[in-house]
Amino acid sequence: MAYPQARRGYGDPVSVIVVGAGLAGLAAARHLRAHGVPATILEAGDAPGGRVRTDHVDGFLLDRGFQLYNPAYPEGERVLDHDALDLRPYVAGAIIVLPRRGQRREVRVADPRREPSWAVASATAPLGSPLSTMRFGAYALSRVLRSPAALRTEPDVTAYEALRRAGADQRLINRLLRPFLSGVFLESELTTSRRFLDLVLRSFVRGTPSLPAAGMQAIPEQLAAGSDLRLQVRVLEVGPRHVVTEGGERWEADAVIVATDPPGAARLLPGLTIPAGRSVTTWYHSPDCSVEHLVGGAAALVLDGARRGPLVNTSVISQAASTYAPPGRALVSSSALGVRDTPAHERAVRDHLSWMYGVDATRWEHIATYPIPYALPSMPVPLDVRKSVRMYDGVFVAGDHRDTSSIQGALVSGRRAAQAVLDARGVVASATLGA
To answer: Would the pTM count as exceeding 0.85?
Structure first.
């Protein structure tokens, strides 16, 4: 895709420079542009997206790490054209694999409002006591009834402690909640802040995680439309109202927004404190059997309730979005915590896939592996969901590490940084565009 670019040369003064074309940087530039303030985005990579990128390999769409977009994200609803993204929903639930007398058993659990055919299975699933399940359901629904601002003010504890206080018993946590949330938080001990847990539960009750038909990179591509985007320009230095690129060019600007990934932001902004990173590895395979033999062909997350292997989740991703695989083929996405990019890890993944799907996965075609050392910033207790976006005079920072480790958090942080620039310039935000 080509991006319209203003007729400026290197070294010419610009109004605002945004360093990084991830979701936060693109959202910041969009907000500035909507208020009549031009911004130039400098991106080191060959396309926008940052950590949200999609590769095309032999007819397969491979997101760089398993990611889903929830159309219930308030900021996403505000800034994205969901119809144009052509969102393909997953099942609003999961399939839990449990051992039973040496064999495997598939248990289906879902929101009965959106998956009525799974209602009976969900009600009888051996995941926790009926009282425990009812109490957890009530807790999740209560998150929807409170505003995000109200949820952020509640006393903070770990997600595990919050779930226990809400009445979830140990069996429900170990068989369902821990396997599911491990894939969301990218940590298995549930030490993540209850404030982030509450926002996650709120979004899952309100919306169904989905995939854009053209891959997750369709989201940054849409945000980048109309931007003054300069690709393959690496910024090495950020100072008050200027940046210096790898080629030695100095760009002057009224303001600079650093919207790189957190480690990159810390390198450019000495003194910036960033959270520890959560790492993940995602494998893509094409199975040699019919998808009907894989959990009945359901477009659902598959979780191991007994945690018998390295994977936190897997799914036949092409069942949700057929565009992810060439005609007649299927694509399976599987993820494990940490960086695990060795042949031994891949063998362990195949063994685990064989258990989770109940078929021999040792001969599945390996399409690609994506080890991601810093996939998400951690969200420990106590969590400040609105960290400052102001660094010093003329320099601002954006990214999910300033809000929450999610697409929602990245988009909000970009808007907040842009609004801080507008505030410094005395520009009043439009009521229709938010502030």
So the answer is: yes
